[in-house]
UniProtKB/TrEMBL annotation:
Protein family membership: Belongs to the synaptobrevin family.
GO biological process: protein transport; vesicle-mediated transport
Membrane-crossing segments per the record: 177-199
Name of the protein in question: Vesicle-associated membrane protein, putative
Compartment annotation: Cytoplasmic vesicle membrane; Endomembrane system
Domain V-SNARE coiled-coil homology: 113-173
Record-level GO cellular component terms: cytoplasmic vesicle membrane; endosome
């Protein structure tokens, strides 16, 4: 019953994340949909989807997320989130902290008794777990949203590849153009040189001395 994924997001964008080794589920896609549709005021929420709980705390426009198997007590999920919220400093190496805290909360029985997070854990009993599709608009299905997201990502990837190829083609075109211009200038200089030689009566320039 482990925490299998954790992330921190700012302004709706994941800035650091960590996934339990050996778990192949792509949680980041669901998290992206969740971040796009959640309220960004200070609050806590818990959703369920396909055997996992998606739990998060939003505070001061920073969202702390963890995904766990459904048999992990909700109080531990929010204890973990409170812990990483207290540790988060906005640094780029925070994924190592996520990994360390995931290992602690997954393996150490003392994790449920940490001082400093007990008061926050008490508020968890007021959080009702909902199906994650409740965050979607009426009539939407998560699978359809994820499929649209995949297609948008694929289109974005195709666009980036096309742009890269276009930039490469334009670069080669400019290189070839510059080579041609240099060659033309060289030819013009040679022609001018021989015209001057002819006008001056030869290479010793007798008429121009």
């Amino acid at each position: 019953m482990p925490i299998v994924y954790a992330a921190v997001a700012e302004d709706g964008q994941v800035t650091t994340e960590c996934q339990l080794a050996g778990n192949k589920t792509d949680f980041s896609k669901v998290i992206t949909v969740l971040l796009e549709r959640m309220e960004h005021r200070n609050h806590k929420k818990s959703y369920s989807h396909e055997g996992f709980s998606y739990n998060y705390i939003t505070e001061d426009e920073v969202t702390y997320v963890c995904v766990a198997t459904m048999d992990l007590p909700t109080r531990l999920c929010f204890g973990f989130l409170t812990k990483i919220k207290n540790l988060y400093d906005g640094g780029e190496e925070f994924d190592a902290v996520l990994e360390e805290q995931m290992a602690f909360f997954n393996n150490d029985p003392k994790a449920d008794k940490i001082k400093g997070i007990q008061s926050d854990i008490k508020t968890v009993q007021d959080i009702m777990m909902e199906n994650i599709e409740n965050v979607l608009q009426r009539g939407e299905k998560l699978e359809d949203v994820l499929d649209k997201t995949d297609k948008m990502n694929a289109n974005a990837s195709t666009f980036r590849e096309s742009s890269r190829k276009l930039r490469r083609a334009m670069w080669w075109r400019n290189v070839k153009l510059n080579i041609c211009l240099c060659f033309i200038c060289l030819i013009l200089l040679v022609v001018i040189f021989f015209v001057v030689v002819w006008a001056c009566g030869g290479f010793s320039f007798p008429k121009c001395g």
